[in-house]
Amino acid sequence: MSVSRRTVLAAAAGAATAGALPAPAAAVEATAPAPDLRTLRAAADYAVGKLAAVSPGVTAFPVGTRFEKWVFSQDGDWVGGFWPGTLWMAWLYSGDDAFRTRALASARKLAPRQDDTGTHDLGFLFSPSWVTAWRLTGDDVWRAGALRAAGSLVRRFNPRGRFIRAWGGLNDPNNAGRVIIDTMMNLDLLAFASEQTGDGRYLDIAVQHARTARRVFPRPDGSTPHVYDFDPADGTPIGPNTVQGYSPTSCWSRGQAWGIYGFTTMYRRSGEADFLATARDLADYAIGALTPDHVPVWDFRAPQHPHDVKDASAGAIMACGLLDLAAVTGSRRYREVALRMLTALARTCLTTGSARADAVVARCTRNRPAEDGVEISLPYADYYLLEGILRVLRPADVDRAIDLSTV
Q1: Model confidence, pTM
Q2: Active-site residue among 75, 115, 121, 403?
Q3: Taking the CB of the first residue and of the last residue of the chain, which one, N or C, has fewer CB atoms within 10 A?
Q4: What is the sign of the dihedral through the CA atoms of 351, 86, 168 and 113?
Q5: What percent of the chain has pLDDT over 70?
């Protein structure tokens, strides 16, 4: 899937979404912040300046903030790939080799996780860190480690239900049939492994999981639950559930963002048109659910929507997914909404008003039902904000880092 084999797609399937939307999209867009490239450049400059000041003192992996200061994990938890990934984005934007050096040093600390079969999050851990390191340096050590991590991830595949198990060790009966929408973002590591090795088994597992997710997650109106449970013994569907959303019938906004981005990526890697149609359905619902300020609330169907706690990380992820979707469909509407979202984040969600903040993006929510991390900063918000801005300002550089090609 090298850049030289990119196929530019000028059109795609229709995007009509069944069911009523929470707000008319045209009305939302009429009051949204106007896209402003100067604002995005200023936000990128601020991010790079903040990282230049904070990153020399970071020796582990940020997982979130407490009183505006990073709290760290030594092994990376599920978010470890985002810190080196953010440093890579800063290097691409600034050309400052100090970021490159720190990105490589941080990524090396994830090496023990290559053999971790106890999590589905190996894509989050190794795609923005080791895969990007290989693409930007050509050092085969990074490629080999990412392939080893892909080998660990495929061991979590349940062939009876055709899904990758989300949580728990391979022999742990708890959560053995649990699938979550987030896993869509881990599948690209498997696509990378097939492209690099010529072994189609990796991509086949990714496609099977995506087909299963497409079958059970989207509702007729394009919204999604966080969780779907199966009987792990025979793969029989049990039904939707949630952990981080308001309820099994609600729509956790960060999960919706993972779905938009993940299904678009799987379309780009497989060429399977149903994945693109699903990405558009999810995107159309999310656009209709946006509040006029274009910063998503934490759950689009929580009782206090639209007057609820925000999740800027969902906005940053969704903006990247919409830009990706716009690129493969030729849709100006998706790109316009993404630009308005990035502009809104840059204007209203940065930590520019605080002298003590370690992070770039504020107003994030990690797990509202557990009251864990409400109105904090999260490392993936910083990563996807920079990725989104670079997709607009430096698309060729982002392509170098994460591969924007389409089969």
Answers
A1: 0.92
A2: 121
A3: C
A4: negative
A5: 92
